[in-house]
Amino acid sequence: MPFGVRIRVSGRHACFSRPEMKTERVSYDVITPSAARGILEAIHWKPAIRWTIDRIHVLKPIRFQSIRRNEVGGKIPVSNVRAAMKAGAVHDLRLVVNDARQQRAATILVDVDYVIEAHFDLTDRAGPDDTPAKHHEMFSRRAANGQCFHQPCFGNREFPADFQLWTDPIPAHVLPGDQANKDLGWMLLDIHHTPTRGGGHVCDDGCVPHFFPARLKDGVLTVPRLDAAEVRS
């Protein structure tokens, strides 16, 4: 039986980049399910469980801001990493940041506040001691105490996410009328690392992105299952 949790997350800035925008970063209107899952996994994750996002409650108005950011335009080649692993030496694993730095524009979200409703299921890697009640208690304790494996973020590391376990009723949103019920277009649902049957777009590293038609209804984004009919890859 899946165990459900609620967690409230907020922050000053967020950027959930649209993949169709190649050079400049442009954020989705709200947090994506994959980013929400990443926040939960930062608090508690084990190979024995798999998180699924059910609903996202948007509490504050959707506001954008344009900024300019310094980004690194390259990365260390994989071949260099493999060579260093074989040689047992890391002296060639370096990247001159000043030479690779690029200034790019970004359209980000400002003053975000969400309540994430999610549940987890046990995977085939669960052991005899991995019970749903055990992992539910572990997550609840860690979230209540502000514990995490690494600082959760809203799309980028420089946009940290504050979180708290939420057991009270969902707060009323303050979205204006045109945002409370809004068609958000196709949104990234998740990225699956096993090729799907029947084709689908496959990234260079073998992952398969899945998208769904997102819509806010009274400030709530309902997330479909990965195998739902409306999900496309």
UniProtKB/TrEMBL annotation:
What does this protein do, in the record's words?
CRISPR (clustered regularly interspaced short palindromic repeat) is an adaptive immune system that provides protection against mobile genetic elements (viruses, transposable elements and conjugative plasmids). CRISPR clusters contain spacers, sequences complementary to antecedent mobile elements, and target invading nucleic acids. CRISPR clusters are transcribed and processed into CRISPR RNA (crRNA).
| Entry's transmembrane regions | none
Record-level GO BP terms: defense response to virus; maintenance of CRISPR repeat elements
What is the name of this protein?
A: pre-crRNA processing endonuclease
Organism listed in the record: Nitrospirillum amazonense
- Gene3D superfamilies tied to this protein: 3.30.70.2660
**Domain of life according to the entry:** Bacteria
Task: Cite the InterPro entries for this sequence.
Answer: CRISPR-assoc_prot_Cas5 (IPR021124), CRISPR-assoc_prot_Cas5_N (IPR013422), CRISPR-assoc_prot_Cas5d (IPR010155)
A molecular function annotated in GO for this UniProt entry is: endonuclease activity
Q: Does the keyword NAD apply?
A: no
> What are its E.C. numbers?
3.1.-.-
Keyword entries, A-Z? Antiviral defense, Endonuclease, Hydrolase, Nuclease, RNA-binding
Q: Which family does it belong to?
A: Belongs to the CRISPR-associated protein Cas5 family. Subtype I-C/Dvulg subfamily.
